[in-house]
Fold this protein.
Amino acid sequence: MTLTEVLTELAVPQSEELLAPHWEESLASLPPGRPSFLDPEEFIHSREFAGLPADADASLRDAAEAIAASPALLELAWHCHQLVYVHRDYAPNNIHQWPELEDALGELSGAFYLLILLSGVPQMIRLHSDMGIPAEVTAATTTHFPEMVHVYHVSHPARWGAHPRALYWVRNHTAGDIYQIGRFEYMLRPMHGAIRVYRHRVTREVIALSEADVKFAADGFVASTEHGPQEGGWVASLTEDDRGVTGTPISPAGVAVPIPITLPASEWELALKPGDTMLEMHIPPGGGMTLERCLESMAMALEFFPRHFPETPFVAFGCQSWILDPEIETFYRPDSNMVFYQKELYLYPIASGPTSGFYFVFGTMDVDPATAPRDTSLRRAILEHIETGGRVISSGMFVFPEDLAHFGERHYLSHWPPQGSEALAE
C-alpha cells in the first residue's frame, strides 16, 4: 500500500508529511508474516524484562492481533519501529506528533505504541551482551519503562499503552547510549549550557560565568522570550585575554548576578566549557532520592564509564531538568530529597518555559488547575503554585568528580562567593 492509502484507511491522512520519510525503505524491509515484536512470546518477555505488570498482556495481545489482521496497521507498525530504532536521523519532534489511532484501534490505540516501545528491548539486550555490559545494569536500564506507561494512564485511565512521545527516548537504549547505575541514568554527552566554569589553582574553588549576550530577567533567571523585554533585565558580558577573564557570575544557587567579576589567569583556570564531554544525568521517577543513594550512584558511574568507555573521558556530571528548579523549595517541601540534592550541586539558569515538567508530573502539558489531579503532594503543590501566578522552570547543574569528596557539605554554596569577590554576596 502507499502511505496515502494506509493513513486514509486509518483515518489519519493529516499525518502523511510526518510519516513520509523512509516509507519506501520500510516497505522494502518488511518481513514476511508478522514482525517478531507482534509475537506474544517476544512482547511478553520484553514486558517482563521492562518490569511492566502482566495485566498489560491482554491489551498487548489484542493490539498485536488487530495489527496483524490489517495490512494498513501492519505496515504502519513496522514503519514506526523502523523510524524509531533504525532511522535515527528521523526527528524526535516528529515522533512526538504521531497520531492517536482511535478510529482504527479504539481503546487499543495506546497499546499500538506500547508494542513499538517494547520492540526495542531485545535489541538493547543483544547490544549490551555484545558490549559486555553487566546483566544487572541491562536490567536496571529499563526500570523507568513502567513510568512511561503510568504517564499514559494519567490521561487514559484504565488503558494500557504509551504516548508516541515516549518512543524517542528508547533510541538511547538501543544505541547503547544510556545506562542506569543505581538511582540515576547516565549518558556521555557534550555540555550545552551557556556557561564557562573556572577553578582556582590553589583553593580549588569554582565559579561559573555566563556566556556573553545571554539575556537575564531582574531575578537572575534567563529572560523568557514569551513575555518580551522585562523591566530590570540585563545582558551578560564575557571578555577574555591573556590576563584573565571578566564576566557575569552565576551563583551556585542557580541565578546570575549583575556584578561583573574578573578572574586573573594566574589564579584561575578554565575547568568546563560548552562542548566538553559530560556524564549527563537523567533522573528517573520513583522517589527515594536520598543523598546517600545519589552519592552511591555517582560513585558507581565513576567506575562504570571509564571501564566500558575508556576512549571517552568526561569532565563533570551534568543535568538539565525541572527537578532542578531553584524555586521548588518555596512552593514544595523545603525538606524534600529534591531540595536536599539541589544544595549539593552547582546550579545555573537556562532558557525555560513556565510549565517545565508538567508532562512528567501530570501526563500532559495541557494542565487545567481546576480539573488536574491533586492525588500527590507534589501535584497539589504545583497546582496551588500555578493558581497564585507561579511557574515551574528548568535549570542546569554540574558537579566535578573531585568535589564528590565534599558531597553532603553543600560544598559549592558554602564556598560562595569565592575569595576576593565578597561583593557578590551583597
Notes: The chain has a mean pLDDT of 93.
